[in-house]
Queue: 2 jobs
Job 1
Amino acid sequence: MILSISWQSLLFSQNQGPRVEVSFSPPSITLANNTIYKIVIHGTQDNLQYSTPAVSGLKISDSPQVFRSYSNINGVNSARLELSFQVRATRQGNFTIAPWNVKVGGNLLQVPAATLQVLAPSQQDLLRQKRQQEQEKELEQAAFIEFSTTRPFLFEGETVPATVQLFLWDRLPVTRIEQAPVKNGDSFSITELRQPNEKRNVLRNGKRYAVFSWNVGLTAAIAGQPKLSFSTLIRVRVSNRRNGPFGSPFRNDPFFGFGREEQLKVNGEEREIEVRPLPMKGRPAGFQGAIGNFTSQSRIDSDQVSLGDPVRLVFEISGTGNLAAIPAPDISSGKNFKIGPPAFSFDGNQITKHEGKQSFEYILTPLVAGLLEVPPIEFAYFDPLRESFVSAPTRPHPLQVDRGKQWIPNDQGNQSPDNSNESTRPSTSDLFQTEVEPGEWRSLLEASPLIEKPTFWYLQSIPLAGLCSLSFWGIRRKMKGKEKFRRKENSLSKQMKDSVGFNDPSSLLLAFRDLLRLKIAKNRKHPNPSSLASDEIVMLLKAGKNSEEVINSVKELLRNCDDQEFAGNELSKQPVEDLYRKGFGLLKKIR
Amino acid sequence: MSRLLFVFVSFMMLAYPFGSYAESENKLFYDAVRAEAEEDFDSAIRFYEESAKISHSANLYGNLANLYFKKETYGRSILNYRKALLLDPKNRELKANLSFVQEIARIESSAIDKQNSYFSSSSMDAWTIFTTFVFWIGLGGMALFFFLQVNRIFQVIFFLFWICLNSLGVWAVTQTRDNHDLQNREVIAVAPTTGEDSNASKAIYLRVSAFEGSISNTSVEPGESLFLEMEKNNSVKKHTNSIGETWYFARSLGGRNRGWVRQDQLLRIVPATER
């Protein structure tokens, strides 16, 4: 009878359809405070599909806290789904969130309008705001990027050495720099950032910093007043106690608490750099974009060759400037030479490519015999310090080209070599000179190849032994790792069980989170389970094709785990045993 | 004391033959140089040939080749330049002399002469070391990456790169080995005696059968390269006829010209005793 009544009441409540309530809690706030935009949907626990509404002057969080509940009061069953959005106002006034729609299990429900009153900030709010600004300023001072160049302005296409410096406050618990600083702005190009130089105990703003410096070559691409800044990502270990005595998460010592890692974006100050266009006046014909201070020279490897023999012409530019951007100068081949495409080589500062020697090697093949002249190379550059063009052509090189050996056609030399005319045969006096010393004596004309020597094959046993040792070491290491992992897993499972006995939800949730990290790291082959933050865990769960339900449940438990540590929430009212079952069930389900 | 004396005497007895050995080849070489200076080319050739029976040196074969050229015996001149180049492959002077003699004798240099490529016989050891190095380093690296659980994609890329480098190495070793075998089978056609080896019309005939009266398939000039045919059991294909003459079956590099050639008309670059 009772069952039939409760079933009918449930049916009745379902027949009524889901009902939506909405409210701000509290409904009026001062400008410096937050409020909760709470949506309660009665009569369903299905998953929601929605897009967060946007209202000018309000900042509504994208990740609401979701809470599902089910109750039976006086035989009436009721299911409830709560969504709580954090809302922050950016200005004073009355704000109304217009009615909007959510989709629940295929049904479209309308969320009614709700109004929030935002009042002027109180004295207390202003004080808090000031403190927050101080904290933000402190956070900005905790990690920042600076860059410096050697010149106050640049010319278009000019390359100068620059230094990018990342300052990290020594009290900031940085675990790693995730990437080298990245340039923001397309008006400049920089050379590759390699390994930084590290300097510790640098004093700035009354704090001690570790400074990481990268030397780069900075090239201005577009004339004007372009802006340039750098940013990077670092990973810091922060405390879970958000409401700690100091407010700032970096102030707490993370090594005595359950710290978690978070990514932090470090920005540098945006700077305007003047980039001037190159003057058109007085631009020489041989100018091809070289900017800096250079000397040029050329040389040939031989000044006497036979017709058709190649000659190497090397043109070198030394000095400071945009060496990497200088194209090979054109050399007019004329009718005397055939000139091949040049080969480039750079010798100097490989990091900035700003200082050194750029060489262009041409292969010239003389086409006519006689005393020829390798033409001078027209080279001109723009000196940014003197702000004028400079011509630096090379000198011509004389080259004696003789005719070389002549081919005797068969019909002319029909006789055998024995009775051929002596005058047609080249002189052998230069060719066949007698060596008066025997040189090195050898017992064999040709040494037997290495592959046929038994010693070579015996020696292979050395690397083979090395490989076997390596494999043995690897297998042992792997087995040890597995054993350690298994022990840790067992210990955490035991901790979960014990916390049920001690009625300690906080310990249960912490053990659950660590066990979850281990399991996910094992499944997804992550090398460092303890470094996994909640977002990363969720991301790995998604990658493992877990169901949305499992992911949402894990998300909820992780959030509760973070909150439970220092604040306690409604979860503490739930029986620990239920939490244990839920957590244990989830651990079994995840992939 | 007597024991010390015994050791000293034994050492001297053992050392003497080696000393006289080294001295004799030098002595013959210097005798040859003196004879050449006196323009007694026949004696100089004889001394050099005697010295070459004891030991080898690039200068010895170079001088010998020069003398044969001066006596217009181009086949033996080319043969000795080839021997000299085996000992000193980078000697530009020897290379220039060889190509000049070939030009005079109107002989196209064989493909093996032109081997400056990366897969010549002389680079076989280098390729062997390279392949061995790549094989073990790659194998060790892969084991290390596997045990350290390095990124799987990186492991696959490394493995493919390793396979490619190994394949290149094995292929190169095979190529150089083939070239090495070919070089060991190479012979230079020469006229039977030095006096008759002038290039006037002394062609060497590649005959259909292994006897003097047999018709010939074709002929080659003294100095041309031929390659000895091998039997299935890896021995040289040869025939000794009823009058005691030994004949070898030889062919050109492309295999177009082939036939039986009398033993004294062919001289090996690498003597059979050294293989």
Note: Chain B touches chain A through 57 residues (CB under 8 Å).
Job 2
Amino acid sequence: MPAKRIIPCLDVMDGRTVKGVRFVDLREAGDPVELGAKYSRDGADELVYLDITASHEGRKTFAELVRKVAARLNIPFTVGGGINELADVDRLLNAGADKVSVNSAALRRPELIDEIASNYGVQVCVVAIDARCEDNGEWRCYLNGGRIPTERGLFEWAAEAQSRGAGEILFTSMNHDGVRTGYANEALARLASALSIPVIASGGAGAMEHFRDAFAKGEAEAALAAGVFHFGEISIKDLKQYLHNEGINVRL
Amino acid sequence: MKIAIIKYNAGNICSVDYALRRFGIEPVITSDPEEIGGADKVIFPGVGHAGATMLHLRQLGLDRTILSLRQPVLGICLGMQLLCRHSSEGDVDCLGVFDVEVDRFIPQSHADKVPHIGWNVLKDVKTKLFDAEIEGRHVYFVHSYFVPLNPHTAATTSHIHPFSAALSKDNFYATQFHPEKSGDTGERILKNFLHL
């Protein structure tokens, strides 16, 4: 079995700065390439770069950033944000990204998943899902970074994404995101048992035991986090040693 | 030293280019048989679909070029699978350097995920591609098809069952994992190849 993966996520503005970073020991803390290199040295298994730029100009700068990251880092990385059509995927993969993550565009037009898989293989296609557990207990998928509810249920959409050619599901629980009380382990475990592709947990990491629980209880293959790493609250090195001591299979 | 990277309709060729550039080597990325034949070392990378890429290789005449090579050749990921006899991905006859079939992973339980994505351990390493330091280290895999254990197996790993993480025969070397994405361990393996 492959080791459980730890994946820092970097939100990039205009291809130049990472939002919400507060490292005191890193001079260029906001530089996406330098920060990625630091995480790689610390033992990150993969990185995710999300383009949160709205402008066309910013999108071009992001492709340049992808080129720089690919030239510098010797671990895999996924890019996402603003991928609407095959041409976007082509540009980012050609720049050196290993995988692309699609979210709202796939919910709006699910055939995008088939197109990516048939043109580049399922291994490059990560389908990101933002979902909220509503008052009635149902998990509903949201569009546009959690702003617009859809009629889609989490489990139904994840299964469809898999059958269309998703290589991995990146599931963010909107109920848990930013709260730092742990991942949505019950929903994760349900996804893991329903799907044959790997599930990446996202949203809720605040302490090292939350990662352990995402793996041990949520049966996730990978856990993604941003704030706890960017603020230096958890070092990836310490986290992986902790997980190893807790009996989780990780790469040290 | 002249390094040629074989260019065809497979994805992710640029990451091998980047990896070599980090060592200060400028490879040529080419589908020209003469240029490939004249290189000191040849890298045959790629991710994609075995059926579609084999068809393309034949159209370019690169199947004959690859089989004629006598210098060290390194197949990576799909490149390794295409060096085998046959792949069930597209039910296609491949190059046949390694006399073995490529099969799809079949999950035995819900814990067995396909594709096999992530870092897994190298065991039973043989050949000059690896050195004693590499035994037991993690390298990065991403694939849905695998090469079973066979007489050419040069390293093993395990997902659902043990399978070939690397192959070697004469001047042909191949890795199922991506050395260019496998951190320091991967760089060490690439350097070992360059020093062959």
Note: The first strand of chain A starts at residue 5 and ends at 13.
